[in-house]
Design the sequence.
C-alpha cells in the first residue's frame, strides 16, 4: 500500500494519537506490552456506528452519512508507522463480501487486499493498528458499521473459491471479530474490512462500482422497424450487479417486447445476451447466458409462448464499443433481439 499519497486519510493516520489532540489515546509504541494495550482500549471512545451490529431491521447503506471530505487515490489510506503490507493484491473488478453485523453484503468494485504485519523494528499491537484505522476513517467522515464476529453458519455458507480468493485480505475471521467501515461521499462509496489477531491483520478495501443506468425505452413500433430493417435490435437492459436479475426500471422495456410479439404472432426471436470485458471471460459467458434466459422467462411470464423464443449468450466476445471507456462498456452490456 502506498504511503504519503498527499490525501487527508494518509495525513490523519500519521497524526493519530498526537499530543495536540486532548481526546486522543496515544498509539502504542515499540515495547508496549499486550496488557498495557488492552487497558488502553477502555479509554478510547468507540467510532460512530451507522447501525447496530445486529439490529432488528439490519444494516442499511442509506444510514451512513454522506461525507464532504475529499478522498485521494485508491486505496485511500496509508499504514501507521511501524507497519507494512504483504501479499498485496489490487483487482480492477471484484466481488467482496463485507460483514455488516447481520449479513455478508456483496460489494463489487475495485478491490485492494493485503495482510498487515509489524516491521522488524516495531512491536506489533492489534490495538494500535485498529485504533489508527478507526481514527483515519473518522477523519474521512466514515463510520464503523460493526465490530463483531461473523456468525459461523454464515461463514460456512461462503463458497470455498471465494474464501480462497480472499485469504490474504480476510484475516482469521474464524477466530476473531471483524471491523467493517464505510465512507460515503457524493462521488463514491468505500468499504473497509479489518480483522486483526495477535500476530497480524487482514485488510480489504473496495471502492464500490457506481450503478450506471444505461437503459432507454424503445417502444414496440421502433423495435419492429429496427427488426424489419436489420433483422435485430439492441437494447440496454439493466440487471443487478453480476447477476441475471432484471431491475424494476427495465421492466417497461420488457413489456414493449412482449407487446411487439403479441401484435405479431408469427414473430420468433432469439434473445442474445452480451457483457463488457470486465472480469473473467468464462464467468461473463455464463452471465450472458443467464441474462438472456431471464429475459426469455420474463416474456413467457407475460404471455409469450416459449416456443417462439430462444436464449443465447455471447459473453464479451462481440463488443460494439471500446471496453476501455465507461461509455463503451455500457454499450457492450446489452441484450439483442434477433429475428429467427
Sequence:
Amino acid at each position: 500500500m502506498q504511503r504519503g499519497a498527499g490525501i487527508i486519510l494518509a495525513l490523519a493516520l500519521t497524526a493519530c494519537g498526537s499530543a495536540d489532540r486532548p481526546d486522543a489515546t496515544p498509539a502504542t509504541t515499540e515495547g508496549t506490552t499486550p496488557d498495557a494495550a488492552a487497558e488502553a482500549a477502555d479509554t478510547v471512545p468507540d467510532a460512530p456506528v451507522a447501525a447496530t451490529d445486529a439490529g432488528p431491521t439490519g444494516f442499511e447503506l442509506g444510514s451512513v452519512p454522506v461525507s464532504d471530505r475529499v478522498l485521494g487515490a485508491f486505496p485511500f489510506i496509508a499504514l501507521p508507522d511501524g507497519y507494512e503490507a504483504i501479499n498485496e493484491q489490487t483487482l480492477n473488478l471484484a466481488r467482496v463480501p463485507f460483514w455488516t453485523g447481520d449479513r455478508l453484503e456483496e460489494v463489487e468494485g475495485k478491490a485492494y487486499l493485503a495482510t498487515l504485519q509489524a516491521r522488524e523494528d516495531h512491536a506489533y499491537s492489534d490495538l494500535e493498528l485498529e485504533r489508527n484505522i478507526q481514527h483515519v476513517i473518522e477523519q474521512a467522515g466514515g463510520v464503523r458499521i460493526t465490530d463483531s464476529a461473523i456468525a459461523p453458519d454464515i461463514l460456512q455458507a461462503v463458497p470455498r473459491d471465494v474464501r480462497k480468493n480472499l485469504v490474504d485480505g480476510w484475516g482469521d475471521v474464524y477466530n476473531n471479530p471483524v471491523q467493517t467501515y464505510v465512507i460515503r461521499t457524493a462521488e463514491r462509496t468505500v468499504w473497509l474490512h479489518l480483522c486483526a489477531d495477535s500476530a497480524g491483520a487482514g485488510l480489504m478495501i473496495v471502492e464500490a462500482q457506481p450503478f450506471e443506468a444505461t437503459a432507454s425505452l424503445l417502444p414496440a413500433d421502433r423495435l419492429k422497424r429496427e427488426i424489419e430493417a436489420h433483422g435485430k435490435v439492441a437494447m440496454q437492459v439493466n440487471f443487478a450487479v453480476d447477476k441475471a436479475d432484471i431491475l424494476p426500471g427495465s421492466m417497461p422495456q420488457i413489456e414493449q417486447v412482449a407487446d411487439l410479439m403479441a401484435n405479431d404472432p408469427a414473430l420468433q426471436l432469439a434473445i442474445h445476451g452480451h457483457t463488457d470485458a470486465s472480469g473473467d471471460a468464462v464467468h461473463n459467458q455464463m452471465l450472458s447466458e443467464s441474462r438472456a434466459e431471464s429475459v426469455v422467462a420474463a416474456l413467457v411470464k407475460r404471455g409469450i409462448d416459449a416456443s417462439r423464443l430462444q436464449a443465447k449468450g455471447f459473453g464479451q466476445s462481440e463488443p460494439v464499443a471500446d471496453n476501455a471507456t465507461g461509455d463503451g462498456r455500457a454499450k457492450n452490456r446489452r441484450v439483442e433481439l434477433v429475428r429467427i
